[in-house]
Design a protein that fits this description.
By secondary structure, this protein is of the alpha+beta class. The protein folds into three domains: 39 residues, no CATH class; 26 residues, no CATH class; 159 residues, no CATH class. Helix content is 36%, strand content 24%. The chain contains five helices and nine strands.
C-alpha cells in the first residue's frame, strides 16, 4: 500500500531519494531480463546473425548445419559415395597378356653340370591372362564444399590387384621321357613365374598410373551427370 502526503489539502506522492529510485529501476530491469531468459530457454530461440561461425565449426556436422542454413538442402559426402557405389563395377582397369613359355629339363650327372643324353623332356605352354586393378570404395575419401561448389576426393594409395590366369586359357604340350618323367608341379611353377613376370612388366609400364587415370575419368563423368555445377578435385591424403 502506497503512502501519500498532503500539502495544502492536496494528496501528493512522497519524495523518494536517489538510491531508492536507483534500486527500484535495477529491480525492474532484472525482472525484464529474467522474463526474456525464460522465453529463450522455453522456445529455443536463437538470434539470427550474418556470421558464418557456428559451435564446433570444424566438425562435419557443424559444416553441414552451416551450409544448410545458408543454402538449404546441400550435397553431402554420403550423396557422393552413393553415386560412386552405382558405378563401382566400372572402377576396375584391366590389361590382358598372352604368350608362350617352355620348360626343358634333363637329368644331370650327380655333382656336375653335365646332362645325361637321352633324358631330356620338354613342355610347351600357351597362355593368356588378365590383370585387373580395382579400388575399395571404403578407402575413397570425399569432402564436399557447397559454397565453392567443389568435391574433394582422395583415392587409395594402393589399389587391389587381381592377376588371373585361368586354367581354360592354358594349353600344355608335353614331350615326356621315360627316363626323366615330367613332374606334376612343373607346369604350375612355370605359370607362377609367368604371372609374376607379366605383372612386374605391367607395373613398370605404368599399370597403376593408367588405372588411376581411368578411375578419375569415371568419377568425373558420373558426378557430372548428376551434379554438373560441382567441380571434382582430386587431392592426396596429406592435403585433407
Amino acid at each position: 500500500m502506497r503512502n501519500y502526503e498532503y500539502v495544502n489539502g492536496v494528496r501528493v506522492k512522497p519524495h523518494k531519494g536517489f538510491f531508492t529510485r536507483l534500486f527500484h529501476g535495477a529491480t525492474a530491469i532484472c525482472a525484464i531480463v529474467g522474463v526474456l531468459a525464460i522465453v529463450v530457454m522455453c522456445t529455443g530461440w536463437k538470434p539470427l546473425s550474418g556470421s558464418s561461425k557456428v559451435k564446433n565449426a570444424g566438425s562435419r556436422e557443424a559444416i553441414i548445419e552451416e551450409e544448410e542454413r545458408f543454402h538449404g538442402i546441400i550435397l553431402t559426402t554420403d550423396n557422393v559415395v552413393t553415386e560412386l557405389r552405382a558405378i563401382s563395377e566400372l572402377m576396375t582397369y584391366s590389361e590382358k597378356y598372352a604368350g608362350t613359355a617352355s620348360v626343358v629339363d634333363s637329368v644331370e650327372i650327380p655333382y656336375t653340370d653335365f646332362e645325361i643324353w637321352g633324358t631330356q623332356h620338354k613342355i610347351e605352354i600357351v597362355y593368356s591372362g588378365t590383370i585387373k586393378v580395382g579400388y575399395d570404395l571404403n578407402d575413397i575419401k570425399t569432402v564436399v564444399n557447397n559454397q565453392k561448389k567443389e568435391i574433394y576426393i582422395t583415392l587409395p594409395k594402393l589399389p587391389i590387384v587381381d592377376n588371373n590366369l585361368p586354367q581354360e586359357s592354358v594349353t600344355v604340350v608335353q614331350d615326356n621321357n621315360v627316363f626323366n618323367p615330367i613332374r606334376a608341379d612343373e607346369v604350375t611353377v612355370r605359370l607362377a613365374e609367368v604371372k609374376e613376370r607379366h605383372l612386374q612388366e605391367a607395373i613398370n609400364s605404368g599399370l597403376y598410373q593408367k588405372a588411376q587415370t581411368h578411375l578419375k575419368e569415371i568419377i568425373i563423368e558420373q558426378l557430372a551427370q548428376v551434379h554438373s555445377e560441382y567441380k571434382v578435385i582430386f587431392v592426396d591424403s596429406v592435403a585433407l
